[in-house]
Design goal:
312 residues, 13 strands, alpha/beta, 5-stranded mixed beta sheet, D-Maltodextrin-Binding Protein, domain 2, 3 domains, 25% strand, Double Stranded RNA Binding Domain
Length: 312
Amino acid sequence: MTVKRAIVLGSRGSKLALAQVEIVREVLAASCPDLLVKVATYTTKGDSVTDVPLSQVGGTGIFTSELESALQSGEIDIAVHSLKDVPSEIDEGLAIAGVLERADPRDAFLSEDGRLLEELEKGDTVGTSSLRRKAQLCRINPGAVAVDIRGNIDTRIRKLFQGHCDGIILAAAGLHRAGFESSITEYLRLDTMLPAPTQGIIGLEVRGDDKTTIDIVAYLNHKATWLAAAGERSFLREVEGGCRIPVGCHAALDKATMEITGLVADVDGTRLVRRFLRGPADQAADLGKKLAGEILASGGREILEIVRTGNI
């Protein structure tokens, strides 16, 4: 009898995170039937601290650090992330070795009464703790008021229907993966609500010296998504963005060509710089870096300095 090699996936314990790790487990089981796939769950700082907006939670990697510690200690072999939660710079000795095919990158709007985001009246409230969403919300419907809302997807949807707010904005991919797609009122267009860099992408992080696991993950890697992620993470790295900065980016491939769009804004959306570039997809990281440079040189650097110093 052949003994299967065991591989341990690490995940947060939320409904969405468990849905995502199950997707990875199923893909691994289908692609590598000789593997025995196990799952270990962890509570991150971002899961524990829910009484303040994400932009006010200290430190980096608030949804990833505990998983990375488990990787480094050998407790797990692969950390399964929503790639948008992973800082643009990760710990030495670790690596993003692959990504699954991207799901819908758009944001979605949910309202209890079926109104669209543009139909909300002055003073109606929209739940989101994302500075990026708040900045662009001000452009879509200047009369709507953003209110902070934390918690996992089901908690935020429950708060909506309990009257905490008139609507909420969440990532469409997460809603679909967690089984809440029927709650979506509308999908927000990319030209009005640019998503977070790598939104909709499941990233697989490994130890940099674990060649066996790297080879397994590389086999699962979706090339077009990998290139899009490379461009978007390069943009994020160049602008030094994160949950404390209103930054958006999205890259799309058309055969060998990539079109990448990025923005930086202040929190109330009054100042916003948005640009896009086209170029060879195999130069994705360079395109992301170049786009960031153009935005910073066109007023983005001044905006980010003001946001970082709190002079908004």
